[in-house]
């Protein structure tokens, strides 16, 4: 019947939109965090169109200092942000290059980057 046809079509459209929304939310959140840290202009408000989804590539990688509460010391860590916008912390760059598991893995959703300790 017509109602089932409309319901089925709506479900397909919403499922497709949901997949796109999940991808775009991660991109938008990462850009907001990046602009908070780096400064500069505002983020992009429109949907981002890509020919290929950066599969197998890193969006960002580099060294950073991590404060460890248990011994109150700063440790140098290697951070990697792959195409899925998950922040991964490794002991070192060589640990990342060897494919070892990350020490910390943070899904970007729901976090805010602080640029100072105040």
Automatic annotation (TrEMBL):
Superkingdom, taxonomy of origin: Eukaryota
TM region positions: none
InterPro entries linked to this entry: Niban-like
Signal sequence region: none
PANTHER family per UniProt: NIBAN FAMILY MEMBER, PROTEIN NIBAN 2
UniProt-recorded name of the protein: Family with sequence similarity 129, member Ba
The organism of origin for this protein: Nothobranchius pienaari
Lineage of the species this protein comes from: Eukaryota, Metazoa, Chordata, Craniata, Vertebrata
């Amino acid at each position: 019947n017509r109602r089932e046809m409309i319901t089925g079509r709506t479900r397909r459209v919403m499922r497709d939109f949901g997949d796109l929304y999940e991808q775009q939310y991660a991109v938008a959140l990462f850009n907001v965090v990046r602009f908070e840290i780096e400064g500069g202009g505002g983020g992009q408000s429109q949907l981002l169109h890509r020919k290929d989804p950066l599969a197998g590539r890193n969006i960002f990688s580099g060294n950073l200092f991590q404060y460890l509460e248990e011994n109150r010391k700063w440790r140098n860590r290697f951070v990697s942000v792959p195409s899925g916008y998950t922040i991964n912390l490794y002991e070192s760059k060589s640990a990342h290059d060897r494919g070892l598991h990350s020490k910390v893995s943070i899904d970007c959703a729901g976090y805010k980057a602080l640029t100072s300790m105040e």
